[in-house]
User: What shape does this take?
Amino acid sequence: MSSVSVTVYGTPLSPAVSRVMVCLFEKEVDFKLAHVDMAKGQHKSPDFLKLQPFGQVPAFQDELTTVFESRAICRYICDKYPDKGNQMLMGRRDGGLLARTSVDQWLEAEGQSFNPPSSALVFQLVFAPMMGLKQDTASIEQNEAKLAKVLDVYDHRLGESKFLAGDDYTLADLAHLPNGHFLVTKDKGDLFTSRKNLGRWWEEISARPAWKKVVEMQNAPWA
Amino acid sequence: MKLYGSPGAPCTARVLLCLEEVGAEYELVTLSMPTGEHKGPVHLARNPFGQIPALEDGDLVLFESRAISRYVVRKYKTKASDLLKEGNLSESTMVDVWLEVEAQQYNPAISPIVFQSFILPKMRGATPDQAIIDTNLEKLKKVLEVYEARLSNSKYLAGDFFSLADLSHFSYTKYLMATPYGSVFESYPHVKAWWDDITSRPAFKKVAAGMMGS
Assistant: This one.
């Protein structure tokens, strides 16, 4: 058995960290999780900044390769380990350029359309209370309204396609798990369940074993 | 290939720049934004988010400028020119990192400044919100500090080679330079030098000429 070459720096509760973790579990790539104590400002320490110059989690190392930005890390994991675990995350190999391009498109939709309003909501609903900050109800309302419009588009798409990029589960779907999960745990699950196709998709992707492993780690007392 | 959008819109310009850099043959179909053509059923069939640009290439229809850019660059790559460096994992990984940095760090800071200080007054005759500009300028400075450190050690963002990561910064930055806030780059000499370098490329000059304010 080879020694573990991959280290993820961060905490499983961070959406971006959990995005990387679920990808590693899907790809069956072993990794070490190195906890970063954000409360103590460890993510702004000089040592950490060498790994992630913006002082954010996750940071990621695979032997001598350092990667940051969770979506770039996910792409790296798929490209570095093409024959391990789930081999369809960046599109089926026999789907060629078009399959990969469809994944790129919906990854960008996640990054540019789903992520901004859902992250703002997750911050208000999950992290603000944890940090002892008052919730901004105007922000919650505005971002919920923005997100609803995005989810209407998704619902339409998922009426014509099993998963976002096509017939197979890919990184494009996976990228939505962290924020989606937090929204469901904070009683905003009706955003998904009130939309038939979107609800069906969310049920399927959130039931995947790789994601369940991440949730277990998030719920662990040491998370 | 047909690109649907507006040559003055930053995300359309991002794709135009890719098309010009790789020497692709394409037709730009300008949509009428004031009449809401981008929200009509014909365009919604291309881009369900009702945004521009969208690309048609044979049967393929694509949206999201960064995904379209990847497609164009991959389709036209040659031995001599691969703006994604997909033949080399350590290089392509760095391209992916800095593409995400543009999308997740740089763009959220610069686009509100551009929207408030350029698009609102010049294209919509509306008054900018200075508070939004000021907040995002502070964010942008923090991002530029990281870029300055990076570009002190590396000629381009992904390494010593020009890539899609550099190109992806062009359109919003070009608009920033048409406002007083472009002077913020003067405090970051390596970033300024990088900007001067990439904007000297012929493709950049050609696309800039089609954008408003250039």
